[in-house]
Amino acid sequence: MSDNSIFDHFPEEMARLGVDLVVRGQNRASSKSHGDTIGQPCYRAHFDRDSPCPGCSVQEVIDFRRPGRWHVTQDRDGRTGYFEITVAPIVDDEGEVVELVEVIRDATIELTLQQQLIADSEELEADVENKGQELADLTRRTETLRDTLRDLRRDQAAMVHTEKMASVGRLAAGLTHEIHTPLGALISNLDLLKRSIERMAGSDDAGARKGQQEACEQLLDLQQLAADRIHSVARSLRMFAHLDRAAEEAYELHEGIDAALALLGHRTRDAIDVVRHYGELPPVRCRPDAMNQVFMTLLQNAVDAIEGSGRIEIVTRRESDDVVLEFRDSGRGIAREHLGQLFEPGFTTKGRGVGTGLGLAIAHRTIAAHHGSIGVDSTPGSGTTFTVRLPIGGPA
Amino acid sequence: MTQEGGTILVVDDEQMVTGNLELLLRMESTHEAVVFNRPEDAVAHLEQHEVDVVLSDFMMPGLNGLQLLNKAKELRPTASRLLLTGYADKDSAIKAINDVGLFYYLEKPWDNGDLLLILRNAVERSRLLRSLADRTGSLNDMREQIWKLLI
Predict the structure, then answer these.
(1) How many separate domains does chain A show?
(2) Is B60 in Cβ contact with A185 (below 8 Å)?
């Protein structure tokens, strides 16, 4: 074939075979790869085999007189080579196959790439499936988390509500005492006034009437005293609860501390010396009702910490753009191992039914929401100091 | 009941309360009121004088009602002890009744009619205790005299 063939310049290996598969001619590419193969069976000539290659379909080409294409593998240079074999029949005038033309093309790179592609795409598909599952998992977990968060928020709201109710209860106990004393005097005075007036009406004795009148005047003075006291308690309460003010404003913190102290008067009057070392404080931007609750919590804890008699000191001062408030008590102090848990919700040393364990947790949250800080320093047996630091400009 | 008024020691840190009780006793009873706003002054008075009734507030600076009534029990054991409190705390009420041996526990605000009745009973009880003590004393005296005669 090489002497007279137009196929010599064709880059693939080509051969002319007899129907017995013996090579009758070859092009230049074939000669270059395999040397002179004329007279050898094609499987020996091209693939160095003693028998036809597995997958060889040459018989079909001969039987059906039409071209066929298949692949043959052969290990070359330590790796598997893939070869595309194309065989076309050459038919004479009677329709007999007289010769075969074989083209061998090295398809190793193509097939390797193809296989790689298939493997890659399979891997990709698997990946996509995995990712899909992961995504579904993630979505499910996000939903669970969202549910948990919602439950937590609800629980937290419930806890805050519980503490609010508890502090309302404590407040009510304090108010009961603060109001009952003047109220007792007031009701009794009224009764005496009524009796006195009846007696005056039924008496002709000028001297006796004069005596009754004097008593009435004294009773009215006492009445004034009692009414003023009730008024001042109500004012403290209003100031404490901040009923008539905006949610957030520039607030005189001393006002709030004084209101809380007034409401705790029934508990400090007995044996606790309350000392105020107030510095010059500018109004502080905050939520006064929340801040008053913090003061109440700290002062109530201070009172609770004192057994018998003792002392509560409140020290306030300005430090550049902050105000610093110290609440010191001479109470029993806090054990070192408890200091770390002090601001955790639910932690209490007061025993079941006494404290909710939320007072300081809420105080901590309130101060943090105002971009301030709250710290504690305690010596068991000699007292505790809570230090609150707040930016004057507020949380904004 | 025909009974002479007794001496009532009234202790409350609130002048509005002692002022009221003083007027109440003067206008509506034959009792004599001795009032103090500082519990320490009340103790000083008890050291010097016999009284029939001690009527005390609970929450006071210096000495609370329970401590004061305990002191009164020690100094004047026959005097009836009453607590008049605005602090409606069950624990302190129970403690007061058990520890101090209260004759009566009253809460503010009170009813004047009830208070006067309780005070009258308290004075009567205190007098009965004292006369019992007197009679026991004279009985002992008589017993001693009899012994002397016999020996």
Answers:
(1) 2
(2) no
